Predict the 3D structure of the following.
Amino acid sequence: MYNEKELIGKRSRLFRRLMKLRDIIPGSFSVRRLRCGKPNCICKREGKLHTGYQYSYKIEPKQKPKTKMIPKDLAKQVERQVAANKEFKKIMKQIHEINLEILSNQIKNKKN
Ligand SMILES: [Zn+2]
């Protein structure tokens, strides 16, 4: 159980971490093994699949996800941007929890 001052201090530290996470993009990144579709390619003939870097995202919750294939030299960057967004959301969740705890305490104090 934290008091309000401790909670606000904790929240400030979380916001400082949040401010450093700027290069964020929503969605998910995955590495896939796939066939290119060319009839004479080694992937078709010998089953040696290509490596594909796939990024999927949506902006609105009800939207159908959009998928992009990412060039190899951008794959690490996209992976990092997606991971930074996950971290961003994790910190936002902690901030929500703190603010809800502060609200609960405010409601409790009103009852006395
Ligand atoms: Zn191929």
In short: The first strand starts at residue 28 and ends at 34. The radius of gyration is 22 Å. The pocket of zinc ion is lined by residues 35-36, 38, 41, 43, 50 (CB under 6 Å).
